[in-house]
Amino acid sequence: MSWSGVYADGISPRLQQLDVEADFDGLQLRGEATREHWRWSDILAVVPLASGEPVRLGHRASAARLRIDDPTAAVALLAHAPSLQRAHRVRSVGRRFSKGIWIRFGLATAALVFVIAIGPDMIAGLMPQSWAARIGDETLRVLAPESKRCTDEAALRVARDLAARLAPTQTIRLEIASLGQPNAVALPGGRIMLSREMVAFARTPQEIAFVLAHELAHEQHNDPLTGFVRVSGMQVLSRVMTGGSGMLGNAGVVAANAPMSRRVEARADSDGMRMLEAANIRHNEIDSFWRRMEAQTGASNGYLASHPSTAARARAATTDSQDGEPPLDAAAWDALKKGCR
Amino acid sequence: MHDVAANMPSGSRARVSWYGKTSELYALLATNILFKILTLGVFTFWARTRKRRYFWSHVEFLGDRFEYHGRGIELFLGMLFVAAAVLLPLAIASSLLTLALPDELKAIVQVFYFIALGFLTGAGVFRAIRYRLTRSAWRGLRFGLEGRAGRFGRDYLFRTFLMLITLSLHRPWFDAWYYRTLLTSTRYGDQHTESRPEGGELFGTYLVCWLLMVPTLGLSMAAYRVAFLRHLVARTTLAGLTVSFDATARDLIFLRVGNFLIVGAVLLVALGASITWTTPLMIGSTLSADNKSVAIGLIFLVFGAIAVTTVLPLLWQRRMRFFCTHFVFGGALAVDHIRATTSDAPQVGEGLEAAFDFDAVG
Ligand SMILES: [Zn+2]
């Protein structure tokens, strides 16, 4: 079989007309100034061969190109070399990486892993208290602007006194504000936000005391600041891994952060209980609090959840002990409920 | 056009042809998105490479197709290096500055940011174009870009600053500088492109378009764009090839308004769908009003992204057809003066450009 072909030698873009003949070994190229033999195993498809289309070939060892415009050529060549159905990476540019690239790869990976794995604890530990407080205040302002905050002096005093009893050595700034759902958040620098909805949701002072103890335990371990640094670092990493595609990248951050976050939450639960014991505050009926919470907000479960499942938290909190004093007397409880619900 | 002996004789005219098929573009897009979702986005670099390979190999000039030789791993490593060496230090430095400085000095961080971003955007554009050119070939010969990314970044920063203080009146000089620098640095084989656009010659046209910008809702800029492209190509040659651009401002406005209508139509459908879909959900739910609007917003965002994605191949087709129809090449490619080069190409690429979401050849 033979066709007329157009050939460029890979050194100049000048085209030469030549005869192309297929034999058992490969293609024989015969032109005025060119006489070459391309073996089948050396021939690459610049564009995947398709029946009826011009054939565009390259050679493994050079940048030469061969085009056969005859529409019957593709089928005939595919019979000899079926791999030409796929496009190949042609050799002229595709090169191996040098050693330096792999050293840089190692360094860059180390830097990024540090940011995610070891960095947050270290950086959070080294950060001056005033900086942490600044981040905390900024977040507080975004989360709950002044207009959404509870300003009832008596109610705030009740909640702040309770926090001080639970963690006498910590500097805490507690605020109560509307957050849209029963919740509480620990922020960097000892800032804690309790939601009005949580005050309304709680049926006993024990429940409020437990929620506060949980957040105070977070503060004791510097969890909020560590989490802040970790998520910031992960956002940089997710940008790298995804070339900046936002939604998927954020899903990645959530997925990567979840296991760590669940561990931290479980620790805050158990340390919170210990805190209640140490302050001699009664802490029964916490499991029923979790069950009611689940009924209201739906179960939180699975790998992506940032908190342990509510069922697991209820199990961990089961105790019948009637030891200890009630966290608040009736008057204080009333003041809190009336002032900031 | 396929005259082999002379490789396009002098006096003849040739166009670049686009052979991309809409159905294949949809298949390409669908598989890319699927793999991106499965890999939580990491496939992006390989997706971009597949897309370019398709586009390059379906553009034909004088009978031969363009070739793209880039690899996904090169883009991935490029991004990784930029993150570790540039983005991470920048993020740390700026957050430290924000935390350490008192409120009155916060403006310093803004200035620092502007300088860093301006410089990095310019340098990133240069590096991205160099990467793409060194990965592009035609008839087996590579393209390339000479020059220094740092110098381009510095000038880019300076001219961006001029644009700001002149309320964009500096634009014609900016554009002339931008394309002159990039084009004269571009080479095919060992032949450099020659390009001599002059911003001053376009200032009159620009000023009129600039004054008409508000009453025409920005459409007047299409006239400047077309005038600039014509001026640019008339003053650009590559190894004996001359170029002209034969579109009118009306053609460009049709292209843009058409794209706008296509995107607008599917976004309207998406809005309608997200409202019907969320209404029953909203009526029976205990969510607060704030959370409801956030939920509707999020659902619309997802629906909108899906909707725009479904028309992307149409927009690509329109753009490729537009540019392939309107650029006309004349003169003769001086094939005997062009030789392949062996000069070095960067091993990894494009991190900066990708980091700042800046597409220079859009
Ligand atoms: Zn917690």
Overall average residue pLDDT of chain B: 83
Characterize the main sheet of chain A. 7 strands, antiparallel
Instruction: Give the amount of beta strand of chain B, in percent.
Output: 5-15%
Radius of gyration of chain B: 23 Å
Protein name (chain B): Membrane protein
InterPro entries (chain B): DUF898
Keywords (chain B): Membrane, Transmembrane, Transmembrane helix
Pfam family, one (chain B): DUF898
Condensed summary:
The complex is a heterodimer of chains A (341) and B (362). Chain A is α+β, with helices and mostly antiparallel strands and 341 residues long. Chain A has helices at 73-80, 99-117, 119-126, 129-143, 153-166, 196-201, 205-220, 223-242, 246-278, 286-297, 310-316, 330-339, and strands at 2-8, 16-22, 26-31, 35-39, 43-45, 55-59, 65-68, 173-177, 184-187, 191-195.
Written overview of the protein:
The complex is a heterodimer of chains A (341) and B (362). With 341 residues, chain A is α+β, with helices and mostly antiparallel strands. Chain A folds into two domains: 80 residues, PH-domain like; 222 residues, no CATH class. Helix content of chain A is 49%, strand content 15%. In chain A, the strands form two sheets. In chain A, strands 4-3-2-1-7-6-5 form a seven-stranded antiparallel sheet, with helices on one face. A three-stranded mixed sheet of chain A has the order 8-10-9. Chain A is rod-shaped. The mean pLDDT of chain A is 81. By secondary structure, chain B is α+β, with helices and mostly antiparallel strands. Among the domains of chain B are: 55 residues, no CATH class; 83 residues, no CATH class. Chain B has eleven helices and eleven strands. In chain B, a hairpin with a 2-residue loop joins strand 7 and strand 8. In chain B, helix 3 packs antiparallel against helix 4 and helix 8 packs across helix 9. Chain B is globular. Chains A and B meet through helix 2, helix 4, helix 8 and helix 9 of A and helix 2, strand 4, helix 3 and helix 10 of B. The complex binds zinc ion.
